[in-house]
Prior knowledge:
The chain is mainly α. It contains 7 helices and 3 strands; from the N terminus they run H-H-E-H-H-E-E-H-H-H. It folds into 2 domains: 18-100, Winged helix-like DNA-binding domain superfamily/Winged helix DNA-binding domain (Arc Repressor Mutant, subunit A), CATH 1.10.10.10; 107-167.
Amino acid sequence: MADPEHPDLPEDPDGSEPAAVHRFVDRLGGALASSGMALQPSRAFAALLATESGRLTAAELADVLEISPSAVSGAVGALEQLGWIRRERPRGSRRDVYIVAEDAWHDVMLRTDQIYAPITAALAEGVGSIDGRPQARARIALSLEFLRFVSGEMAGIVERWERHRATVVEGDPPAATA
């Protein structure tokens, strides 16, 4: 069935309808954006998740998201910097392909040390250098302790996830609940 908002888009080869994919991209993109991520990287990440192969070229992303090539460039650059996607160039091609990992959230969580390290270093410096402001120093110290705690717990969370993921049957994802 054709997408009434995008009649030029054919039904996906896997049978999913473009309207459903567009709704998903808009919904997840909006949810990520409302949590503080920029809108176009959020939508690009959602689009990659929603493709059967998990792979799109810049031109395909521009078509799916209905944005300019420069907007795609900025979006994929932000996602690569976060480690949410990777870029490959097939041999003999001049086009980059952007790829999202099968377990993208797992991969992001494994990078928390890279995310938190500069923040904890700045907080530790602040705790050591802020004198004469005990309430401010206490807030900074508590922030530092929280991030150290979360970083320490992350290894256990990842381990528990990997055990749980092994129990999920491939090709039969858990039912959606919201």
